[in-house]
């Protein structure tokens, strides 16, 4: 990994170099060579490559290699990475015992967080390494598929060495060799969401890594951040919204009522993109092919919502984001709603670990300032004199 991350100097007491903003909006906290999000033009770049080219032409394994090593692999390097992935698709007995003990009602995102933490406790020592990043990334689908089958009263399945990352995930969930169409759709989804600049979960992981903690702790923290509905927890809520709308005929009245009453439209708007999210563009076309009936409903809602938003909130640049069509695509490959965000994590772990490795390659503790807004110079009153 090239040392491409450098921390900005902390402001000195009394400095006004950077004023506090809600959510750190507009504040540059680090430099990175991993990915670039161009919000005004709607572009996403991984290590110099446009996301559209990668989503249409590469496997998730190739993109993970790109994020970790800074370049696309040749045939031999890709073969070696796939072999390493296959070798790492195991669950230690201690972790399996914990997964078996979790109640069936446990949310899959919580099960994933627990499994990663337990695996880190028995398998991880020392400074984060590329081998640890590969081991974690290979195991995410195994942890999730194992829990999914356990909570349904089914026996967990052993991964198949001949299947790739996306195909193995679907096989371990269902017990059936997935169709090429489903593998292609899930693979493209995994490529599209593998990294996205300094988002909340990536920043969280980098903060933990900057303290010289281990890679499992940093990834567990990132999982916790991704779980929130303002970050990665929205795809299932998009599905809930479309289900509540119910039909194309009901869409316009539902959307108008939602907007006028202040209800949030799930899957619309993005903190960075002021135009169409490029990932949503790719997912829209994949959803069109994967499930034409569901796509018709989703597309109608999208078009109506954008028109009504422009009418009722002129000047607001709100477009569908990656989560909107993620819901349709993941449902089309057989995933239940509560598996959407964990599957997001299956993709994003490659980006998280790439950022963690970049952070430790040229580390400086991430320790920003806070602008104090509380009282000053209060007179201290002993306990016995307080009323």
Automatic annotation (TrEMBL):
Residues 1-19 have a biased composition (Polar residues). GO terms for cellular component: cytosol. Residues 1-20 are annotated as: Disordered. The active site is at 270, 323. It comes from Thermosporothrix hazakensis. Pfam families: Citrate_synt (PF00285). InterPro entries: 2-MeCitrate/Citrate_synth_II, Citrate_synth-like_lrg_a-sub, Citrate_synth-like_sm_a-sub, Citrate_synthase, Citrate_synthase_AS, Citrate_synthase_bac-typ, Citrate_synthase_sf. Pathway: Carbohydrate metabolism; tricarboxylic acid cycle. The keyword Iron-sulfur does not apply. Belongs to the citrate synthase family. It catalyses: oxaloacetate + acetyl-CoA + H2O = citrate + CoA + H(+). One of its GO terms (molecular function) is citrate synthase activity. Keywords: Transferase, Tricarboxylic acid cycle. This is Citrate synthase.
């Amino acid at each position: 990994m090239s040392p491409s991350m450098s921390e900005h100097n902390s402001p000195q007491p009394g400095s006004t170099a950077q004023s506090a903003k809600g959510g750190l909006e507009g504040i540059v906290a680090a430099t990175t060579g991993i990915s670039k999000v161009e919000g005004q033009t709607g572009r996403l770049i991984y290590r110099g490559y446009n996301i559209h080219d990668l989503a249409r032409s590469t496997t998730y394994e190739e993109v993970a290699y790109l994020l970790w090593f800074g370049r696309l692999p040749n045939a031999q390097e890709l073969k070696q990475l796939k072999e390493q992935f296959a070798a790492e698709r195991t669950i230690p007995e201690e972790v399996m015992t914990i997964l078996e003990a979790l109640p069936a009602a446990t949310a899959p995102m919580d099960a994933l967080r627990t499994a990663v933490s337990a695996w880190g406790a028995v398998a991880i020592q020392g400074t984060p390494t590329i081998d640890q990043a590969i081991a974690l990334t290979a195991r995410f689908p195994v942890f999730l598929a194992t829990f999914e089958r356990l909570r349904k009263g089914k026996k967990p399945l052993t991964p198949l060495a001949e299947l790739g990352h996306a195909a193995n995930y679907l096989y371990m969930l269902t017990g059936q060799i997935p169709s090429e169409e489903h593998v292609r759709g899930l693979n493209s989804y995994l490529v599209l969401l593998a990294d996205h600049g300094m988002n909340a979960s990536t920043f969280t992981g980098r903060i933990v890594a900057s303290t010289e903690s281990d890679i499992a702790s940093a990834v567990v923290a990132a999982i916790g951040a991704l779980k929130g509905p303002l970050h990665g927890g929205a795809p299932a809520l998009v599905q809930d919204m479309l289900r509540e709308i119910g039909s194309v005929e009901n869409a316009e009245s539902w959307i108008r009522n939602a907007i006028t009453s202040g209800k949030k439209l799930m899957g619309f708007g993005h903190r960075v993109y002021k135009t169409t999210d490029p990932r949503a563009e790719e997912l829209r076309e994949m959803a069109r092919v994967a499930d034409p009936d569901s796509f018709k409903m989703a597309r109608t809602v999208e078009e109506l919502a954008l028109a009504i938003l422009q009418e009722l909130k002129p000047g607001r640049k709100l477009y569908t984001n990656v989560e909107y069509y993620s819901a349709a695509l993941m449902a089309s490959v057989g995933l239940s709603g509560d598996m959407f965000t964990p599957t997001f994590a299956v993709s994003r772990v490659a980006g998280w670990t790439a950022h963690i490795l970049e952070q430790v390659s040229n580390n400086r503790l991430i320790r920003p300032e806070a602008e104090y807004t509380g009282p000053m110079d209060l007179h201290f009153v002993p306990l016995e004199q307080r009323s």
